[in-house]
Amino acid sequence: xxGQPGTRTTQMRRRDTVSxxxxxxxxxxxxxxxxxGDYVQEFGYDDDVDADLRERIEAxxxxxxxxxxxxxxxxxxxxxxRDGDGDLVDELVDVQTTLDDGGVVWLLTPKAGREDHVSxxxxxxxxxxxxxxxxxxxxxxxxxxxxxxxxxxxx
Length: 155
Known about the structure:
Layout: H1 8-17, H2 28-32, E1 40-43, H3 51-61, E2 74-80, H4 88-95, E3 99-110, H5 120-129, E4 132-139, E5 144-151
Parallel strand pairs: 1-2, 2-3
Antiparallel strand pairs: 3-5, 4-5
């Protein structure tokens, strides 16, 4: 059983070698490292967002997401972004204004092959220019991929 394709052992081995693969049974809270009581602000909401994913995030944090007009200091940002939405660097700089020290930006983009897909190279370049770096990526829904962007540390 342990080495057959599709088994947990095989999935774990793949996860060790491919950073973006996540076990499908992991909850959104585990994938995004969210917990009850976290403050999360959402940017880029439109009618194409994954409503189920939003509900799972809200269930994980125990409250609704703050909208983009909120001024509260937040633990994390959820940013829905599509190719053609504008300048990703500017948006990444803007969304950091309410982000607490140690907070992260979860950048959700359409999966490869979907309309308005954003390439990983474009994400990496924009993140770096905005003072962030990509630490991981995961598939979180049938249409969206998430990239975890964390502030660069100056040592």
